[in-house]
Amino acid sequence: MRNRLLLMQGLLVLAAASVARAADGPDAEYLRRQIPGEIAGTYSHGELVKLTLGGRNAYVVKPKGRVDPDRRWIWIFPFWLGINDGHGALHHRFYVERFLGAGFHVAGIDVGTSCGSPSAAQLCQDFYQRLTAEFHLHRRARLVVQSNGGLIGYAWAFRHPESVDRIFGICPATDFRTWPTLPTVITAPAPGLGYDLSLEELTRRMTEFNPIDNLAPLAKAGVKILHIHGDKDELVPLGANSGELVARYKALGGDAVLVTLKGLGHGGNVLYQSRDGLEFLLGN
Asked: Which end of the chain, N or C, is less surrounded by CB atoms within 10 Å?
């Protein structure tokens, strides 16, 4: 039961202030309902456009006012942080309203807890192609990857580095050996979005799929990276994820910065209101 709760916490990326807690920890039913089954949200500076792709929910939020002349955009992983969650809260409102106010579009697609699988990365690529064709968005996306969204976003990014401009990681999982661990990588994804491998096969081919082992294409493409991560994060450990990724990326000649948040675990308002992250994503 404890392992299941830890998995759910990682999936749901909750700030401590927003979690309904029972006496012995997070309330499982509250957490289960956190991920929305439909796309909804209202924005002071944007208009929500609901989409579907491959039977999965997706969305684009268009800025109401001035549109960035280069039609730059922010892609949020996991998708639901940029819309209303199952309880009606919009977790990334601080970021999203400022993106929209700056004329950026915001987008996301539900690929479930796919743990960086190739099939989910392909669906993300289909979504990217639709956005750039139908909405004429910039060819190089800017990504926000939080918690389990790190595996999803980086898995798409390293396969399509020419389509990525920069990545802002918020306590992101980047090494699936540490979270959610290899057995769960096999069992967690929804049908059609998994690896379709045995645990033995995944273990043997791990470096082919694990985001932290596939950074060279991003460095070669000049993708900029900024991570913020708490040094007390026990769910997605800083050292094995953001720390190791930034060290490896720099060794490859890439541009990467890690902001270590002292005393912070896997949650907290600072993750949802980072000025460093905002300036990084809106910068030139």
From this structure: C
167-179 pLDDT per residue, tens: 999 999 999 999 9
Give dist(CA 146, CA 172) in Å, integer. 5
Q: What share of the chain is helix, strand, coil (3-state, %, to 5)?
A: 40, 20, 40
Which amino acid is located at 57 in the chain?
A: N
The bridge status of strand 46-53 relative to strand 56-63 is antiparallel
Range of the domain at 126: 2-282
- The number of folded domains in the chain is 1
Tokens standing for residue 163 = 């389509």
- Indicate the DSSP class of residue 53: E
Provide φ and ψ at 94, rounded to 5°: -55, -50
Paired sense of beta strands 141-146 and 164-170, if any: parallel
DSSP state, residue 269: G
Counting Cβ atoms within 10 Å, is residue 167 exposed (0-12), middle (13-18) or buried (19+)? buried
d(CA 197, CA 202): 6
> How many residues in the chain?
284
* pTM to 2 decimal places: 0.93
Q: Taking every pair of C-alpha atoms in the chain, what is the biggest distance, in angstroms?
A: 52
The single residue listed with the structure tokens 């060279």 is 216
- What is the strand order of the sheet 164-170 is part of? 46-53, 56-63, 105-109, 73-77, 141-146, 164-170, 224-230, 255-261
CATH of the domain at 165: 3.40.50.1820
- In angstroms, what CA-CA distances link 33 with 17, 29, 60? 17, 6, 23
For residue 275, what are the CA distances in angstroms to 142, 233, 270, 272?
A: 16, 20, 9, 9
